[in-house]
Amino acid sequence: MERIYNFSAGPAMLPQEVLEQARDELLNWHGCGMSVMEMTHRGKDFSAIIAQAEGDLRELLNVPANYKVLFLQGGATMQFAQIPLNLLAGRSADYIVTGAWSKKAFKEANKVGSARLVATTEASNFTRLPQKAEISFDPDAAYLHVCTNETVHGVEMHDISALEASVPLVADMSSHILSRPVDISQYNLVYGGAQKNIGPAGLTLVIVREDLLGRAPANIPTMLDYAVQAENGSMLNTPPTYSIYIAGLVFQWLKKQGGLAAMEQTNIAKAKLLYETIDTSCLYHNPVEPACRSRMNIPFTLNKPELDESFIAEAKKQGIVSIKGHKMVGGMRASIYNAMPLEGVQALVSFMQDFENQYG
Ligand code: PMP
Question: Which domains does the chain have, with CATH numbers?
Answer without folding.
Answer: 16-256 (3.40.640.10), 260-359 (3.90.1150.10)
